[in-house]
From TrEMBL:
It comes from the Bacteria. Its EC number is 2.7.13.3. This is histidine kinase. SUPFAM superfamilies: ATPase domain of HSP90 chaperone/DNA topoisomerase II/histidine kinase, Homodimeric domain of signal transducing histidine kinase. GO terms for cellular component: plasma membrane. PROSITE patterns: HIS_KIN. It catalyses: ATP + protein L-histidine = ADP + protein N-phospho-L-histidine. The chain crosses the membrane at residues 19-42. InterPro entries: HATPase_C_sf (IPR036890), HATPase_dom (IPR003594), His_kinase_dom (IPR005467), HisK_dim/P_dom (IPR003661), HisK_dim/P_sf (IPR036097), Sig_transdc_His_kin-like_C (IPR004358), TCS_sensor_his_kinase (IPR050428). It comes from Amycolatopsis dendrobii. It is found in: Cell membrane. Residues 183-393 form the Histidine kinase domain.
Length: 393
């Protein structure tokens, strides 16, 4: 089956290749510059060594002539130290006493640097065989070329891997954006369709009774709740508010009090309990944590049938943490679905509508933003427990 590649994926791959290429070019240029500098330093050193050898030979005469590298030629036209390995070329004119002529020639297949000097009317020559210097230069160039090739290949591969790691968060963000837009569109379509249908029916009937108006109000409220969740999700992802000491027990009392009327209407027992000597102060944002508690209670009430119970429990599992559990005797869920409950717009198979929407996804984002953890435990037909754990302030 052919896989359809999204435009974002193609753009990311193109960006990855571009970044990898740029990294490879930069690293290769740096290594090339280092090689050029090394070669220049070698040339300078070899030139100085040639100069030293020639001056030494001309200055110290026959006994100091090093065999096989530097040759000293007398005014009579032969090498005192032995037979020359090349045919002597014509001497350049050096008319004045103290004049020096330096030149480079290829003699019998070998390259020599020749220095000719006039000393009191006698012309002396020193020949320096550059065979070993040229060999050193060739070896250096070969090594630099091989190193450049290895560095180029390594930089391309490492640049590709590093670029992939660098753009992976961007790719994930684009994927989430596409999924979010698709899911949000799906989630908004249902209430909008119902509102449009009801409005058409009212227009055909020519009037609206209290029941029809209440239905419209309920639909707009549902639509507004979805939009609020979308805004809260965007806010949670973009803002990093300042944390302050928050009494978790106070927020829990307020949340339980706010949901008590709804729980009574559904004939659900809602209560709050806390362990003796509770230390409940945590660093956080009161509004965000209040939203977390409200979403958990809303989820519990929506999934607990009449006659059931919901208990909010606060305790200190150890000296450094505060734990809040929301336990219900509702429809529950299979434990293997626990992770999926925190996905955006997740739907379950039990309960009243069993639509989690953005609620639990936002809960997880807010809890993670506070440095806490959330875990879900459930069993079909028995109930569910959501456990939050925060570090104490």
């Amino acid at each position: 089956m052919t896989t359809v590649v999204a435009p974002e994926a193609r753009a990311l791959r193109r960006a990855r290749r571009t970044i990898a290429g740029q990294i490879a070019v930069v690293i290769t240029m740096v290594v090339l510059a280092a090689g050029v500098i090394a070669y220049w330093v070698l040339l300078r050193g070899q030139a100085a060594e040639t100069e030293r050898q020639l001056e030494f030979a001309l200055g110290h005469g026959l006994s100091a002539t090093p065999p096989g590298c530097t040759y000293l030629v007398t005014p009579q036209g032969h090498a005192p130290a032995g037979r020359l390995p090349f045919t002597l070329p014509p001497m350049p004119p050096v008319p004045n006493d103290g004049d020096v002529v330096t030149e480079e020639r290829v003699l019998d297949g070998a390259t020599y640097t020749i220095r000719t000097v006039n000393r009191g009317g006698e012309v002396w020559q020193a020949y320096f065989n550059e065979h070993y210097l040229i060999s050193d230069r060739e070896q250096l160039l070969l090594g630099l070329g091989a190193a450049e090739l290895v560095v180029l290949i390594a930089s391309v591969l490492s640049g590709y891997l590093l670029a992939g790691r660098a753009i992976r968060p961007l790719g994930e963000a684009l994927r989430r954006q596409r999924t979010f837009v698709a899911d949000a569109s799906h989630e908004l379509r249902a209430p909008l369709t119902r509102l449009h249908t009801r409005t058409q029916l009212l227009a055909r009937r020519g009037g609206a009774g209290p029941a029809e108006l209440e239905t419209l109000v309920s639909g707009t409220r549902e639509l507004g709740a979805v939009v609020d969740d979308l805004l809260l999700s965007a806010q949670a992802c973009s803002e990093r508010p300042q944390l302050e000491p928050v009494q978790l027990a106070v927020l829990a009392e307020q949340a339980v009090a706010a949901e008590s009327v709804r729980a009574n209407d559904r004939q659900v027992d809602l209560r709050l309990s806390r362990s003796p000597g509770l230390e409940d102060v945590v660093p956080g944002v009161p509004t965000a944590l209040r939203r977390v508690l409200s979403a958990l209670l809303d989820n519990a009430i929506g999934h607990t049938p009449p006659g059931g119970s919901i208990e909010v429990i606060l305790a200190n599992p150890d000296a450094r943490h505060v734990e809040l559990r929301v336990c219900d005797t509702g429809t529950g869920f299979p434990q293997h679905e626990a992770e999926r409950l925190f996905e955006r717009f997740a739907h379950g198979a039990h309960g009243e509508g069993r639509r989690f929407g953005l609620g639990l996804a936002l809960v997880q984002e807010v809890v993670a933003g506070h440095g806490g953890t959330i875990a879900a435990f459930g069993k079909p037909g028995v109930g569910a427990t959501f456990t939050l754990r925060f570090q104490r302030a």
